[in-house]
Design a protein that fits this description.
The complex is a heterodimer of chains A (176) and B (158). Chain A is α+β, with helices and mostly antiparallel strands and 176 residues long. Chain A has helices at residues 34-47, 63-68, 78-87, and strands at residues 52-55, 91-93, 103-108, 114-126, 134-141, 148-152, 167-172. The chains are: A alpha+beta (176), B mainly alpha (158). The interface between A and B is large, with 48 and 39 residues.
Chain lengths: 176, 158
């Protein structure tokens, strides 16, 4: 079943370290196929009425690679995300304390599932027109073959439906 | 439902965008189509050979340097086969888990997660004789689980 010569290939990574020089495992993701692109467009049509596309589908990175590796590679391992957060001095904050440049991390509290997604807070939208309550707007890449979109933080929760139990937490590397 | 549904746009749309392997495994574990595959195998509605032929057909669309468009279908089959105590499950999951090709990265990662889960819950092949010496009842053979010592989903009493 899995004997195609194509499958003998190996992933290519780049040199990537945390601020404390811990090596971070990574893989440069392949380019999306035409079918992948069509699927992403269907996803936008289904869920993305309020999404703003910054960049059409491309490979190379996933959400974590966009945030922590300048879009050059993908960081898939949850343990690597943990290491980056720890080594680079991130701390969890309340949503109300989030500022532009902080991170929105989507995760399932079950440690057997863990991280789902990460994005960068880029602005704040009023919850309702004229409202003083604001919701973070996040720049993220939904998968290693999707485009980049800016979306209200809760607007992608439909992708992580039951039995996943996705929750959004905010993290910052700003000093106390 | 049919195996072909695993390759549909509709099914892929629901699971393609869950990048992390542990999360994809959890999400697919609740997918009606995955549960149908398990049931259909148990009831003889489909066979392992049907799955083998289906996967062989899917693999024809594999292109070097491009993300495999049926990655989600392979992930789903891996999750469906995880608790099925058959040589085919080991062959499928082992074969997929051993790959390092970036085109199938997520399917391979999900297969590794499934193998981990399988080690924790599926019966191994050790046969224990329980209570035979102390009882006049017929020999009872139990296939115990490995890992945490709790009863798993699959056992046999002969």
């Amino acid at each position: 079943m899995f004997d195609s010569p194509i499958l003998q290939g190996a992933p290519r990574g780049i040199a990537l370290e945390t601020g404390k020089r811990t090596p971070i495992p990574n893989e440069v993701a392949p380019e999306p196929s035409q079918v992948n692109r069509e699927r992403y467009n269907l996803l936008r049509a289904k869920h993305g009425q309020n999404w703003e596309e910054r960049r059409s589908p491309y490979g190379a990175c996933n959400c974590a690679g966009l945030v922590w590796a300048a879009r050059r590679t993908a960081i898939y391992e949850g343990s690597a995300w943990d290491r980056i957060l720890s080594d680079d001095g991130y701390r969890e904050i309340h949503e109300g304390s989030a500022r532009v440049g902080d991170l929105a991390i989507y995760a399932d509290p079950d440690p057997k599932v863990g991280f789902l997604h990460v994005g960068l807070v880029v602005s704040f939208d009023p919850v309702l027109t004229g409202s003083l309550n604001k919701v973070p707007r996040v720049l993220s890449k939904l998968s290693d073959f999707s485009g980049e979109i800016a979306h209200r933080a809760p607007d992608i929760m439909a992708l992580y439906k039951s039995p996943l139990n996705a929750q959004i937490r905010y993290w910052t590397d700003r000093p106390l | 439902m049919t195996l072909e549904d695993l390759a549909s746009q509709e099914f892929a749309l629901d699971y393609d965008f869950i990048d992390a392997a542990p999360a994809a495994r959890r999400a697919l574990g609740g997918a009606p189509l995955v549960l149908w595959v398990r049931r259909a195998l148990r009831d003889g509605e489909i066979t392992f050979e049907d799955i083998r032929s289906f996967v062989t057909r899917l693999m024809l669309s594999l292109r070097q340097g491009e993300k495999f468009e049926h990655d989600t279908a392979l992930c789903a089959l891996g999750v469906a086969l995880e608790p099925v105590p058959a040589h085919f499950s080991d062959e499928f999951l082992g074969g997929l888990a051993n790959l390092r090709a970036p085109e199938l990265r997520r399917a391979s990662a999900v297969a590794r997660e499934c193998l981990r889960g399988r080690r924790e819950t599926v019966a191994d092949t050790t046969v224990y004789v329980v209570g035979a010496a102390a009882s006049s009842a017929p020999f009872r053979f139990v296939l115990p689980t490995r890992g945490n010592g709790q009863n798993g989903n699959y056992y046999a009493q002969l």
